[in-house]
Amino acid sequence: MKVCVVGTGYVGLTTGVSLAFLGHEVTCVDLDQAKVDMLAAGRCPIYEPGMEDLLAEAAPNLTFTTSYADAVPGADVVFVAVQTPSAADGSPDLRYLRSAAESVAQALDHDFTVVVNKSTVPIGSGNWVDAILRDSFQQRENGSEGTGRNDTEFAVASNPEFLREGNAIADTLYPDRIVIGSDNPRSLEVLNRLYRPIINQTFTPPTFLPRPEDANAVPLVSTDLASAELIKYAANAFLALKISYANEIGQLAAKVGADITEVARGMGLDQRIGSRFLQPGVGWGGSCFGKDTKALIATAAEYNLEMPIVKAARDVNQRQRAIAVERLQDELRILKGRKIGLLGLAFKPNTDDLRDAPALDIANSLIARGARVKLHDPVATERFRIEQPELAPYLSQTIDEVFADCDAVVLVTEWGQYLELDWSKFIGLMRTPIILDGRHVLDAERMRRIGYKYIAVAG
Ligand code: UDX
């Protein structure tokens, strides 16, 4: 099928490259010429394991352009995956979505095109995009640019994306489910056809990412527009509150002398609960959970509805960051003048994404209390320098530099290379060998044997 993808951010690029890999003819549009040039040369502007390999395998079916007129005409499906940053009041800023929809409408030229919202957009945005498309299309037909074609038809659908950064390709090719929503039955048929190779798992896996042994046919949830839009928010908020629940129980575990890691393991083995997303620590960050929980609360407020559970999940998450600083204060008593090292800046391992990263709040709060911080990340430092210029002077090039003369080190992001560190090598460098495990991933007994004072955010 012929596919156009508008926006080559995380979601758009993964969608475009994956669909091209599956054999569809894909054109990706992005207004950023430098990005388009880079992608056309086979280089990936984002840090995502495997993306450049997939780009190479998909290249014969993939084109990048800055022109809607090169990409939209003739497309069976147009995915809109543009950024929706938070506006000043916390609601998503839909200006890019609006201008993308207008540009798509100007270029539509096919007997039936499905315009798909792929970005996470507030519930009701499908209707909103539909109205923009119709207005722009009508204007075009009334004005001089009209093609005069009266067989051009389109419909709006929602196809939420559930990929995790760092796992984007596997999550796209071997997903738990695919959700499509539209009030137009023909759109659902088109999207069903588009995704058939994934649904039936009939494609040949990429050489670098074999099909997992337990991969089965992928369930398709084919539903109405509003339900598809709500599924995305409901799922992300549920994952967020699952983590916050583990963190809330973790605080109680610390008080009563229980081990939260054991408690989470014991809970998660109940299949109704499930073991994933019960990992306690400094809490969630990233581009989705914070923004989506906030947007869900804002949408509910438009209907005079409170979302007390979602609100509580947000509060608990923020509290975890504060507790990390309190735990250090409990140990060191005075934070002023102390040197504290943070290992891991990205909001989670295997990404250089720093959005809403717990490390930022923790570093700022320590600095505000007069501590001297040293910051380290294996991958995110380039981005950190650009996005966090006021914190950039605190960056350390090496792990030795972080430990040298340090009063405490906090493991904030559980990068593999930190887990594999020979911790015994660094203890001699520290002034006081305190380790705060912000993710509950280090072996407490082993750390204590080496001679560290091991503490965790809970427990
Ligand atoms: C998330 C959703 O998982 C994905 O489905 C959605 O499309 C986008 O948002 P992502 O933000 O990339 O994906 O990361 P994810 O792996 O879900 O982790 C989110 C945050 O939760 C990270 O900061 C992670 O460290 C934290 N986390 C995760 C925990 O604190 N504990 C856990 O048990 C799991």
TrEMBL record:
Substrate binds at residues 162-165, 232, 277-281, 285, 348. Residues 341-444 form the UDP-glucose/GDP-mannose dehydrogenase C-terminal domain. InterPro entries: 6-PGluconate_DH-like_C_sf, NAD(P)-bd_dom_sf, UDP-Glc/GDP-Man, UDP-Glc/GDP-Man_DH_C, UDP-Glc/GDP-Man_DH_C_sf, UDP-Glc/GDP-Man_DH_dimer, UDP-Glc/GDP-Man_DH_N, UDPglc_DH_bac. The keyword Transmembrane does not apply. Pathway: Nucleotide-sugar biosynthesis; UDP-alpha-D-glucuronate biosynthesis; UDP-alpha-D-glucuronate from UDP-alpha-D-glucose: step 1/1. NAD(+) binds at residues 30, 35, 84, 120, 165, 291, 355. The active site is at 288 (nucleophile). Its EC number is 1.1.1.22. GO terms for molecular function: NAD binding; UDP-glucose 6-dehydrogenase activity. Transmembrane segments: none annotated. GO terms for biological process: polysaccharide biosynthetic process; UDP-glucuronate biosynthetic process. It catalyses: UDP-alpha-D-glucose + 2 NAD(+) + H2O = UDP-alpha-D-glucuronate + 2 NADH + 3 H(+). Coiled coil: none annotated. SMART domains: UDPG_MGDP_dh_C (SM00984). Pfam families: UDPG_MGDP_dh, UDPG_MGDP_dh_C, UDPG_MGDP_dh_N. Gene3D superfamilies: Cytochrome c1, transmembrane anchor, C-terminal, NAD(P)-binding Rossmann-like Domain. The keyword Oxidoreductase applies. It comes from the Bacteria. Keywords: NAD, Oxidoreductase. Belongs to the UDP-glucose/GDP-mannose dehydrogenase family. This is UDP-glucose 6-dehydrogenase.
